[in-house]
Amino acid sequence: MTFSALHTRRSVLTGGFTLAAAAALPLAAAGRAHSAAAGPDVIGCAAWGARAPSEPVVVLANRPERIIVHHTATANVTDYSRQRAFALARAIQTYHMDAQGWIDTGQHFTVSRGAFVLEGRHNSLAELRAGTRQVRAAHCIGQNTVSIGIENEGTYTSQAPPAAQYAMLADLCAHICGQYGLPASEIYGHRDFNATSCPGDRLYALLPALRKDVATRLGTPLQDPQDPQDPQADPESDRVWDLVRQASNPPAAAYAEYLPAGLLP
Predict the structure, then answer these.
(1) Which of 30, 46, 55 is nearest to 118 (CA)?
(2) Which residue spans within 107-155 are E strands per DSSP?
(3) Is residue 250 part of a domain?
(4) Residue 239 φ/ψ, nearest 5 degrees
(5) What is the span of the domain harbouring residue 195?
(6) pTM above the 0.90 mark?
(7) Is residue 172 part of a domain?
(8) How many domains does the chain have?
(9) CATH number of the domain that 195 lies in?
């Protein structure tokens, strides 16, 4: 996940699919019912039982410039149910509002291990559907007014996310890119901007494959300056990535970022 100057993160458990399997996923997902244009089903705040924000959520006039991927660093549970996804969303909001002192959930969207997509901060879904503005968030220091934050349930330091969760993340990213006119190359990990190991070594290692999978869903070629194995990559062609590359030195250990024991069943 992502959270303020003092982060507070959590535990690790299971996983499931290999890097090779993840890379092959987009081909299997090409015929999914939800196109990049239609987007995946997103469960809104009211449906999962969100509290009202403590003060009005700020809607910014600008579109986002990128997507930032996180992991919640919670247990890699095998409960893939809708009810678990709802409980996760409520626990995140409780922690962000009551412990962190934020006005609402910090990120825009959450993808559960059961591949349910939930709205995080209020109004994020409505603004995504409109495609012209974004909600100011609290998921990544320095990026909260120019990026969309996506949390992925689980801890992906040594295990990869379940195939269905990864596929849903790619669907969601493709929809966000389509709505806001973003290239697939503008998908980053939290550690690219803040001193954290989020989204975990395994999920972070999947980001080049994720960008390619999103480009496939969008039907656009990918020239990814962030992927050193991409023969078309130009490390100097992306101003943001070049600055990040020079400044970042991600720590080996995860910061404790969130969800103390007891908030989830």
Answers:
(1) 46
(2) 109-111, 117-119, 134-135, 147-152
(3) no
(4) -60, -45
(5) 19-109+124-220
(6) no
(7) yes
(8) 1
(9) 3.40.80.10
| Cβ contact 59:123 at 8 Å | yes
Three-class SS of residue 191?
Answer: helix
The reply to whether 141 falls in a domain is yes
Q: Is 235 within the bounds of a domain?
A: no
CA 174 to chain centre: 12
CB atoms within 10 A of CB 240: 16
**Contacts by 244-251, CB closer than 8 A, 24 or more apart:** 244/188, 244/192, 244/193, 248/191, 248/192, 248/193, 249/195, 250/191, 250/195, 250/196, 250/197, 251/195, 251/196, 251/197
- For residue 71, give the nearest of 41, 44, 92, 48 by alpha carbon: 92
Q: Which residue is it, tokens 């996804």?
A: 85
- The residue with tokens 């559907």 is 129
pLDDT in tens, 103-135: 999 999 999 999 999 999 999 999 999 999 999
β 134-135/59-60 pair status = antiparallel
Q: Which tokens belong to 142? A: 């320095």
Contact residues for 262 (Cβ-Cβ < 8 A; gap 6+)? none
Alpha helices in the chain (DSSP H): 19-29, 45-48, 82-94, 124-130, 163-180, 201-205, 207-218, 239-247
Taking the CA atoms of residue 1, residue 182, residue 18 and residue 10 in that order, the dihedral angle to the nearest 10 degrees is: 0
- pLDDT band for 221, please (50, 70, 90 cuts): confident
Higher pLDDT, 256 or 79: 79
Q: Which residue has the tokens 């626990």?
A: 91
